[in-house]
Amino acid sequence: MLVYAVIPARNVSKRIGVAIQNVRFAGAEQIIVVVNGSEDSTLQEVRALRDDRMTVISFREPLGFDVPRAVGAAYAYRQGAEHVLFYDGDLIGHHRHELKKLLEDTVRFGLDLSLTDTYGTAHRLDVARNPLLRLRSSLNRKLGLEPRIGLSSPSHGPHVVSRRLLRDIPAHYLAIPPLVLAYAKQERLKVDTLAHIPHSRLGSAHKGPAHYDLIRETIIGDLLEAHCLLEGRERTREFRGQMFDGYHSERRFDLLDKFLIGLAK
Protein backbone atom coordinates (compact mmCIF):
# COMPACT_ATOMS: atom_id res chain seq x y z
CA MET A 1 0.00 0.00 0.00
CA LEU A 2 1.63 3.23 -1.17
CA VAL A 3 0.89 5.87 1.46
CA TYR A 4 1.49 9.55 0.79
CA ALA A 5 1.32 12.48 3.19
CA VAL A 6 0.29 15.93 1.99
CA ILE A 7 1.50 18.83 4.12
CA PRO A 8 0.30 22.37 3.36
CA ALA A 9 3.00 24.83 4.48
CA ARG A 10 2.94 28.62 4.72
CA ASN A 11 5.22 30.60 7.02
CA VAL A 12 6.02 27.57 9.18
CA SER A 13 9.82 27.54 8.92
CA LYS A 14 10.21 26.80 12.65
CA ARG A 15 7.65 23.99 12.60
CA ILE A 16 7.76 22.22 9.25
CA GLY A 17 10.67 19.97 10.22
CA VAL A 18 8.70 18.51 13.12
CA ALA A 19 5.60 18.03 10.96
CA ILE A 20 7.64 16.09 8.39
CA GLN A 21 9.18 13.95 11.12
CA ASN A 22 5.72 13.19 12.51
CA VAL A 23 4.30 11.89 9.22
CA ARG A 24 7.47 9.96 8.48
CA PHE A 25 7.23 8.26 11.89
CA ALA A 26 3.57 7.50 11.19
CA GLY A 27 4.53 5.48 8.12
CA ALA A 28 4.13 7.82 5.15
CA GLU A 29 6.31 6.45 2.36
CA GLN A 30 6.20 9.61 0.26
CA ILE A 31 5.66 13.18 1.40
CA ILE A 32 4.35 16.12 -0.61
CA VAL A 33 4.90 19.55 0.89
CA VAL A 34 2.81 22.27 -0.73
CA VAL A 35 4.57 25.52 0.09
CA ASN A 36 2.43 28.52 -0.80
CA GLY A 37 2.60 32.24 -0.17
CA SER A 38 5.42 31.91 2.36
CA GLU A 39 7.28 35.04 3.37
CA ASP A 40 9.76 33.25 5.61
CA SER A 41 12.28 30.47 4.95
CA THR A 42 9.80 27.58 4.84
CA LEU A 43 10.75 26.60 1.27
CA GLN A 44 14.47 26.71 2.05
CA GLU A 45 14.00 24.66 5.23
CA VAL A 46 12.14 21.93 3.34
CA ARG A 47 14.61 21.80 0.46
CA ALA A 48 17.53 21.67 2.89
CA LEU A 49 16.27 18.29 4.14
CA ARG A 50 17.29 16.72 0.80
CA ASP A 51 14.86 13.83 1.18
CA ASP A 52 14.51 11.66 -1.92
CA ARG A 53 11.09 10.54 -0.73
CA MET A 54 9.75 14.07 -0.54
CA THR A 55 8.31 16.26 -3.30
CA VAL A 56 8.05 20.01 -2.90
CA ILE A 57 5.36 21.88 -4.83
CA SER A 58 5.68 25.63 -4.44
CA PHE A 59 3.48 28.61 -5.25
CA ARG A 60 4.50 32.24 -4.82
CA GLU A 61 0.93 33.21 -4.01
CA PRO A 62 -1.11 31.91 -1.06
CA LEU A 63 -3.56 29.22 -2.16
CA GLY A 64 -5.93 29.85 0.71
CA PHE A 65 -7.24 27.43 3.29
CA ASP A 66 -7.45 23.77 2.28
CA VAL A 67 -6.62 24.36 -1.41
CA PRO A 68 -3.07 22.95 -0.88
CA ARG A 69 -4.73 19.67 0.14
CA ALA A 70 -6.42 19.44 -3.24
CA VAL A 71 -3.16 20.23 -5.02
CA GLY A 72 -1.21 17.60 -3.08
CA ALA A 73 -3.92 14.97 -3.37
CA ALA A 74 -4.14 15.38 -7.14
CA TYR A 75 -0.38 14.97 -7.46
CA ALA A 76 -0.32 11.97 -5.12
CA TYR A 77 -3.11 10.29 -7.06
CA ARG A 78 -1.17 10.71 -10.32
CA GLN A 79 1.82 9.09 -8.62
CA GLY A 80 -0.20 6.02 -7.66
CA ALA A 81 -0.98 6.74 -4.01
CA GLU A 82 -3.33 4.23 -2.41
CA HIS A 83 -3.93 6.39 0.67
CA VAL A 84 -3.23 10.06 1.39
CA LEU A 85 -2.73 11.51 4.86
CA PHE A 86 -3.52 15.21 5.24
CA TYR A 87 -1.43 16.85 7.94
CA ASP A 88 -0.94 20.58 8.54
CA GLY A 89 2.57 21.99 8.44
CA ASP A 90 2.23 23.83 11.77
CA LEU A 91 1.44 20.78 13.90
CA ILE A 92 4.20 20.04 16.41
CA GLY A 93 2.26 18.32 19.19
CA HIS A 94 3.06 14.95 20.76
CA HIS A 95 0.73 12.58 18.91
CA ARG A 96 3.02 10.50 16.69
CA HIS A 97 1.76 7.19 17.98
CA GLU A 98 -1.89 8.13 17.41
CA LEU A 99 -0.96 9.28 13.91
CA LYS A 100 0.81 6.01 13.21
CA LYS A 101 -2.20 4.02 14.40
CA LEU A 102 -4.52 6.18 12.26
CA LEU A 103 -2.58 5.25 9.13
CA GLU A 104 -2.15 1.60 10.03
CA ASP A 105 -5.81 1.07 10.90
CA THR A 106 -7.02 2.93 7.81
CA VAL A 107 -5.12 0.49 5.62
CA ARG A 108 -6.01 -2.50 7.80
CA PHE A 109 -9.76 -1.84 7.72
CA GLY A 110 -9.87 -0.61 4.13
CA LEU A 111 -11.41 2.77 4.96
CA ASP A 112 -11.96 5.49 2.39
CA LEU A 113 -12.09 8.35 4.88
CA SER A 114 -10.69 8.05 8.38
CA LEU A 115 -10.94 10.96 10.76
CA THR A 116 -9.49 12.25 14.01
CA ASP A 117 -11.73 13.12 16.94
CA THR A 118 -10.36 16.33 18.47
CA TYR A 119 -13.38 17.10 20.69
CA GLY A 120 -14.07 13.97 22.69
CA THR A 121 -17.49 13.85 24.32
CA ALA A 122 -18.88 17.38 24.06
CA HIS A 123 -21.67 18.29 26.46
CA ARG A 124 -25.06 18.70 24.80
CA LEU A 125 -25.30 22.27 26.08
CA ASP A 126 -21.93 23.12 24.49
CA VAL A 127 -23.16 21.81 21.15
CA ALA A 128 -26.49 23.63 21.44
CA ARG A 129 -24.81 26.96 22.21
CA ASN A 130 -22.09 26.71 19.56
CA PRO A 131 -23.33 27.25 15.96
CA LEU A 132 -20.29 25.50 14.48
CA LEU A 133 -20.66 22.40 16.66
CA ARG A 134 -24.41 22.42 16.13
CA LEU A 135 -24.01 22.41 12.34
CA ARG A 136 -21.31 19.76 12.53
CA SER A 137 -23.46 17.55 14.75
CA SER A 138 -26.45 18.06 12.45
CA LEU A 139 -24.47 17.12 9.34
CA ASN A 140 -23.01 13.99 10.91
CA ARG A 141 -26.45 12.99 12.18
CA LYS A 142 -28.09 13.49 8.75
CA LEU A 143 -25.32 11.40 7.21
CA GLY A 144 -26.13 8.64 9.71
CA LEU A 145 -22.57 8.80 11.00
CA GLU A 146 -22.88 10.59 14.35
CA PRO A 147 -22.94 7.40 16.46
CA ARG A 148 -19.60 6.37 14.89
CA ILE A 149 -17.75 9.65 14.36
CA GLY A 150 -19.34 12.03 16.88
CA LEU A 151 -18.22 15.58 16.02
CA SER A 152 -15.28 14.48 13.89
CA SER A 153 -14.77 16.31 10.61
CA PRO A 154 -12.07 16.54 7.93
CA SER A 155 -12.02 20.27 8.77
CA HIS A 156 -10.14 19.56 11.98
CA GLY A 157 -7.29 17.18 12.65
CA PRO A 158 -5.25 14.71 10.59
CA HIS A 159 -7.28 12.48 8.29
CA VAL A 160 -6.73 9.94 5.55
CA VAL A 161 -8.46 9.38 2.22
CA SER A 162 -8.29 6.41 -0.12
CA ARG A 163 -7.50 6.21 -3.81
CA ARG A 164 -11.08 5.10 -4.37
CA LEU A 165 -12.36 8.35 -2.88
CA LEU A 166 -9.88 10.46 -4.85
CA ARG A 167 -10.70 8.72 -8.13
CA ASP A 168 -14.04 10.45 -8.72
CA ILE A 169 -14.42 13.27 -6.20
CA PRO A 170 -14.51 16.78 -7.72
CA ALA A 171 -11.15 18.39 -6.93
CA HIS A 172 -12.76 21.52 -5.49
CA TYR A 173 -14.49 19.42 -2.83
CA LEU A 174 -11.10 18.62 -1.32
CA ALA A 175 -10.65 22.33 -0.60
CA ILE A 176 -13.96 22.47 1.31
CA PRO A 177 -13.48 19.62 3.82
CA PRO A 178 -17.11 18.96 4.91
CA LEU A 179 -17.96 18.30 1.26
CA VAL A 180 -15.50 15.39 1.36
CA LEU A 181 -17.44 13.83 4.22
CA ALA A 182 -20.83 14.35 2.55
CA TYR A 183 -19.50 13.02 -0.75
CA ALA A 184 -18.00 9.92 0.87
CA LYS A 185 -21.28 9.01 2.54
CA GLN A 186 -23.34 9.69 -0.61
CA GLU A 187 -21.05 7.38 -2.57
CA ARG A 188 -21.39 4.67 0.10
CA LEU A 189 -17.70 4.78 0.92
CA LYS A 190 -16.31 3.53 4.24
CA VAL A 191 -16.00 6.29 6.85
CA ASP A 192 -14.97 6.10 10.49
CA THR A 193 -13.07 7.90 13.25
CA LEU A 194 -9.89 6.04 14.12
CA ALA A 195 -7.82 8.52 16.13
CA HIS A 196 -8.51 10.56 19.24
CA ILE A 197 -6.24 13.56 19.70
CA PRO A 198 -7.47 16.50 21.82
CA HIS A 199 -7.02 19.84 20.06
CA SER A 200 -4.49 20.91 22.70
CA ARG A 201 -2.21 18.02 21.70
CA LEU A 202 -2.23 18.84 18.00
CA GLY A 203 0.23 21.61 18.71
CA SER A 204 -1.06 24.03 16.09
CA ALA A 205 0.22 27.59 15.97
CA HIS A 206 -1.68 30.24 17.94
CA LYS A 207 -2.70 33.11 15.65
CA GLY A 208 -5.01 35.18 17.79
CA PRO A 209 -8.78 35.69 18.24
CA ALA A 210 -9.35 37.50 14.93
CA HIS A 211 -7.94 34.53 13.02
CA TYR A 212 -10.01 32.13 15.11
CA ASP A 213 -13.19 34.05 14.30
CA LEU A 214 -12.45 33.91 10.57
CA ILE A 215 -11.68 30.19 10.73
CA ARG A 216 -14.93 29.59 12.58
CA GLU A 217 -16.86 31.55 9.96
CA THR A 218 -15.09 29.65 7.18
CA ILE A 219 -16.00 26.26 8.63
CA ILE A 220 -19.61 27.29 9.27
CA GLY A 221 -19.90 28.30 5.61
CA ASP A 222 -18.28 25.02 4.56
CA LEU A 223 -20.79 23.07 6.66
CA LEU A 224 -23.69 25.00 5.13
CA GLU A 225 -22.41 23.99 1.68
CA ALA A 226 -22.21 20.35 2.79
CA HIS A 227 -25.81 20.46 4.03
CA CYS A 228 -26.88 21.81 0.64
CA LEU A 229 -24.98 19.06 -1.18
CA LEU A 230 -26.60 16.42 0.99
CA GLU A 231 -30.07 17.84 0.39
CA GLY A 232 -29.58 18.26 -3.36
CA ARG A 233 -29.82 22.06 -3.23
CA GLU A 234 -27.63 24.67 -4.87
CA ARG A 235 -24.70 25.26 -2.57
CA THR A 236 -24.73 28.48 -0.56
CA ARG A 237 -22.87 29.91 2.43
CA GLU A 238 -25.81 32.10 3.43
CA PHE A 239 -28.06 31.35 6.39
CA ARG A 240 -30.90 33.52 7.65
CA GLY A 241 -29.60 36.52 5.75
CA GLN A 242 -26.00 36.19 6.94
CA MET A 243 -23.16 35.21 4.62
CA PHE A 244 -20.47 33.03 6.21
CA ASP A 245 -17.40 33.71 4.11
CA GLY A 246 -14.45 33.83 6.52
CA TYR A 247 -11.39 32.89 4.48
CA HIS A 248 -13.41 31.23 1.72
CA SER A 249 -13.06 34.09 -0.77
CA GLU A 250 -9.27 33.75 -0.44
CA ARG A 251 -9.33 30.16 -1.69
CA ARG A 252 -7.58 30.21 -5.05
CA PHE A 253 -9.60 27.72 -7.05
CA ASP A 254 -8.20 29.37 -10.19
CA LEU A 255 -4.67 28.33 -9.25
CA LEU A 256 -5.91 24.86 -8.39
CA ASP A 257 -7.52 24.53 -11.81
CA LYS A 258 -4.36 25.77 -13.51
CA PHE A 259 -2.30 23.21 -11.60
CA LEU A 260 -4.69 20.39 -12.51
CA ILE A 261 -4.51 21.32 -16.21
CA GLY A 262 -0.72 21.23 -16.07
CA LEU A 263 -0.77 17.93 -14.21
CA ALA A 264 -2.94 16.33 -16.89
CA LYS A 265 -0.55 17.20 -19.74
UniProtKB/TrEMBL annotation:
A Pfam family found in this protein is Glycos_transf_2
- Stored CDD domains: Glyco_tranf_GTA_type
Origin, by domain of life? Bacteria
InterPro entries from the xrefs?
A: Glyco_trans_2-like, Nucleotide-diphossugar_trans
Which residue ranges traverse the bilayer?
none
Q: What is this protein called?
A: Glycosyltransferase 2-like domain-containing protein
Residue ranges of the Glycosyltransferase 2-like domain? 5-120
